[in-house]
Amino acid sequence: MREYNFGEIEAKWQNKWKNEDLFKTENKVEGKENYYVLEMLPYPSGKLHVGHARNYTIGDVIARYKRMKGLNVLHPMGWDSFGLPAENAAIQNGAHPAVWTKSNIDNMNRQLKMMGLSYDWDREIASYTPEYYKWNQWIFKKMYENGLVYKKKSTVNWCPECQTVLANEQVEDGMCWRHSKTPVIQKDLEQWFFKITDYADELLEGHKELKEGWPEKVLTMQKNWIGKSYGTEVNFKIVENGQDLPVFTTRVDTLYGVTYAVIAPEHPLVDEILKTNPALKESVSAMKNTDMIERTAEGKEKNGVKTGWHVINPVNGEEVSLWIGDYVLMNYGTGAVMAVPAHDDRDFAFAKKYELPIKVVINPVDKKTKEEIKIVAEEMENAFVGTGIMTNSSEFNGISSKDAVTKIAEYVEANNYGERTVKYRLKDWGVSRQRYWGTPIPALYCEKCGVVMEKDENLPVLLPTDVEFTGNGNPIETSESFKHAVCPCCGGEARRDTDTMDTFVDSSWYFLRYCDPKNTQLPFAKEIVDGWSPVDQYIGGIEHAVMHLLYSRFFHKVLRDLGLLSTNEPFKRLLTQGMVLGPSYYSAAENRFLYAEEVEVRGTQAFLKTTGEELQVKIEKMSKSKNNGVDPEIMITKYGADTTRLFIMFAAPPERELEWNENGLAGAARFLNKVWRLVLENKEYLANKDEIDYSKLSKEDKALVRKLHQTIKKVTDSIEADYHFNTSIAATMELLNEMQDFRSQILGTDKETSESRKVFREAMVNVVIMLSPFTPHFCDELWEEMGNQGNLFFEAWPMHRDELTIADEIAVAVQVNGKLRGTLEVDRNIAKEDLEKQALEIENVKKFIEGQTVVKIIVVPGKIVNIVVK
Ligand code: ANZ
Ligand code: ZN
Ligand code: ZN
Questions:
Q1: Candidates 229, 236, 245, 250: which one to mutate for ligand 1, based on the most atoms within 8 Å of Cβ?
Q2: How many Cβ atoms sit within 10 Å of the Cβ of residue 797?
Q3: What pLDDT does residue 555 have?
Q4: Quick one: which ligand is closest to 335's CA?
Q5: CB of 257 sitting under 6 A from ligand 1
Q6: Is 615 near ligand 1, meaning CB less than 6 Å away?
Q7: Which end of the chain, C or N, has fewer beta carbons within 10 A?
Q8: Are 793 and 64 in contact (CB under 8 A)?
Q9: How confident is the model at residue 293 (pLDDT cuts 50, 70, 90)?
């Protein structure tokens, strides 16, 4: 018998699939429903990591399964290929970002092909190509024309040394990542924004449509991110200039408890205050330069300065002091708050620090006695943030604070002190990046015409090539040819915008481009996208729960409103795959994480080979910093793609964490070898392709048929229910064990019937079909070995027959006066009288009814016969 040589087999089938163009997908196939399965497209960092391998295997199994279920499946792949790492590589080693990116794509493409993934490569897209980013610019323009893109000043991280804007990830402890002694400052720059806030409500509402198919966790994260708050805007009067200061509060019930007010350091009023009180300048700019993350961190000490100005509370005419404080953010609410230290934690901490008054306006109620507990401001150690009975609040005293929220809001509105409003945490999406490796923003600035967009026929605005990557400033600004352009409006001289778009723009609509990737007239044709959208199953990491998935939903709705497509949501179902974990080995003596090669593992302990030091072992997320990653390519070379795929799918359900271990891989390999031998060693028994005559089966034949149909049912059900592939594979393994027994105990013995071989073959055929989504090369090879023609890829997924999953014989418990006295193996369809008769004939039963009278016999069909005696 020929050995299972995965290297040869995988190369053979990958070639064949490619030559036959097997994975090519038509947009429409008569009589077939479309099904779109998509994995989040990778950033081409250079090498596939194990998280990729898991992600794509899950997608591939689904794609192959759905095809076998008779659907016309779209399963594409592409490259999210703009972004910072390529630019950094250019700065470091001079290679142009395009060259670096292309070679990474080539390598990863090769690795993907090694895995045997069923992508339609004709639809491959890469966001760094002009053919793709042209449409980013086109969409940007369309959004601009529809008032969904605008420009405003906004704060960015700026390194004075690099003379460039830094992404949040490039700020480390307030310093530039490249200049650890240069503090990053906050600088105001004109930036482009997408008006995602226009869609805030619809993005929330849309969750109703996604409830069935998306993990609840992801919806919750999006909901918090959008952060819809119902509250009241109350106008306080500024004593010093007579103007209104609107504040936003969600707790208008505490309005009588305001003891001071706070504005953000960026609040427009601050400039006026500084004119009257210039001494504050320094502390204000210090507050501004603390980054937002730190300013809003919970438990963080609050800083502020007293302005010397005052505001008047409209409901009671009280004059309170006005402060500038770092815990108030300009981009939320109105950038100003009424402070109620008695009932808000942050205000309480601030009031304690700066010795500001505290006024209680809500008293708690004792849970048991239901009596009001009077709290004393001076004795408070924390704010009381709960609900209770109103006090110190004039005509609202005595009512519950819950009712007061409405009552006081009505009162405020009736007296024109303010009004109820809704605020969102969600901010407009700032898309300008002062970097090279992205989509050029198609805007120009003309002295005569102002801001103008490039003409459609001049798109794409190509990235310039006459640039230098020095690490200082935005490389595009070094291109003279790019900066000096012609105004599309008046034909005069115009300056091009040198910013590029956030790379999240690229990934916000790529799933639509796959439907029609070669379209040169439009980003995609409506009727084609409508045939595929929404993506039926999207698969990716939980780290994209908010930004990517929210931006994509936003884009989808915008494109719908632009008339480019018809559906409301981009992704019908979302599967967030679990992380891949592996053991990390930490050496205390060397203060570093070691590579597996440096380690000797004994049971649960591990030692450094060179010194014998015992190491700290932890199972944790695979990462570069822990040196605990596995390279999928090495695994594929060592064990084969099929074994690697099988292990990944067998080791854990897709949404759970997967612990990588090589023993598991070896186990998967053993299983495949077992299947291999069972086919190749039994070809003589697998030759008869005739239909089974179910009336001629022996007891043993029937048992294997039953196991087969139970397995088909279980495998299918587990896939349909949240893709629990591990259960499917386990069921197939069980079936295989029974087949082995059947082979040795029945086939070739006197128990073999005319049908036994057909039954055995039927089971084998189905095992190979059901394993094929997991281990496609392996199964194709066996399929051929079994003498079949054509591709397994197009084979239909088997259907179980209910009547064949049920045993003919059933076990019935026989009781005498409710006590178990025996069991009967009987035909499932036995007549009641026959069952009773057989029950009465059991020796042990006879013993218990001897000398007594049978009063009655109760039969619970299929389960119990209870003989009642006296
Ligand atoms: C007075 C008050 C009393 C508040 C009280 C809370 C409790 P959410 O629920 O997240 O929407 N706030 C308003 N604008 C702010 C800003 N720009 N920066 C920082 N804080 C701001 O939060 C709304 C509450 O956060 C508002 O209600 C306001 O404080 C504060 F016992 O007003 B509250
Ligand atoms: Zn720097
Ligand atoms: Zn002009």
A1: 250
A2: 20
A3: 98
A4: 1
A5: no
A6: no
A7: C
A8: yes
A9: low
**Is the distance from the beta carbon of residue 248 to the nearest atom of ligand 1 less than 6 Å?**
yes
Strand-strand pairing, 34-39 and 537-540: parallel
Grade residue 74 by pLDDT with cuts at 50, 70 and 90: very high
The pLDDT confidence band at residue 313, using thresholds 50, 70 and 90, is very high
Which ligand has the shortest distance to the CA of 495? 3
Q: Where are the beta strands (DSSP E) in 737-796?
A: none
- What pLDDT sits at residue 156? 86
> Binning pLDDT at 50, 70 and 90, where does residue 168 land?
confident
DSSP-derived secondary structure for 151-179: EEEEEEEEETTTTEEE-GGGEETTEESS-
Report yes or no: 32 and 67 within 8 Å, Cβ to Cβ. Answer: no
DSSP labels, 459-478: -S-PPPSS----SSS-GGGG
254 CB within 6 A, ligand 1: yes
- Cα separation of 405 and 428, whole Å? 29
Q: What percent of the chain has pLDDT over 70?
A: 99
Would you list the DSSP string of 695-707?
Answer: GG--HHHHHHHHH
The predicted structure's pLDDT at residue 395: 96
Residue to mutate (ligand 1; options 337, 340, 345; most atoms within 8 A of CB): 337
How far apart are the CA of 520 and the centre of ligand 1, in A?
50
340 lines ligand 1 (CB under 6 A): yes
pLDDT level of residue 292 (50, 70, 90 thresholds): low
CA of 343 to the centre of ligand 1 (A): 11
Which of 280, 339, 331, 270 has the alpha carbon at shortest distance from 305?
Answer: 280
- Which secondary-structure segment (H or E) carries 138? helix 130-145
Listed in sequence order, the residues at least 6 apart from 382 whose beta carbon sits closer than 8 Å to its beta carbon are: 345, 348
Ligand nearest the Cα of residue 453 is: 3
Tell me: the pLDDT tens digits for 704-738? Answer: 999 999 999 999 999 998 899 999 999 999 999 99
Q: How far is the CA of 171 from the centre of ligand 2 (A)?
A: 9
Tell me how many helices (H) and strands (E) the chain has.
27, 37
Amino acid at 98: A
Say how many residues make up the chain: 870
Determine the distance separating the centroid of ligand 3 and the alpha carbon of 152, expressed in angstroms.
Answer: 21
Overall pTM surpassing 0.85 (yes/no)? yes
- The CB of 335 under 6 Å from ligand 1? The reply is yes
pLDDT over 90 (residue 288): no
pLDDT at 42 (0 to 100): 96
* Backbone phi and psi for residue 623, each to the nearest 5 degrees, phi listed first: -155, 155
| Smallest CA separation from ligand 1 atom 11, residue | 229
Q: How far is the CA of 479 from the centre of ligand 3 (A)?
A: 21
Percent of the chain that is helix, strand, coil (3-state, to 5): 40, 20, 40
Nearest ligand to the C-alpha atom of residue 163: 2
Among 756, 780, 760, smallest CA distance to 769 is for 780
State if residue 344 touches ligand 1 by the CB under 6 angstroms criterion. Answer: yes
Q: What does the alpha-carbon distance between residue 483 and residue 494 come to, in Å, rounded to a whole number?
A: 8
State the average pLDDT for the chain.
94
Ligand 1 centre and the CA of 383: distance in Å? 14
CA dihedral (536, 540, 545, 549) in degrees, to 10, reads -50
Q: Which residues contact 54 (CB under 8 A, 6 or more apart)?
A: 577, 580, 648, 654, 658
For 48-68, the pLDDT digits (tens) are 999 999 999 999 999 999 999
Ligand 1 centroid, distance to 248 Cα (angstroms): 7
Q: How far is the CA of 475 from the centre of ligand 2 (A)?
A: 15
Which residues partner with 191 through β-bridges? 152
Does residue 519 surpass a pLDDT of 80?
A: yes
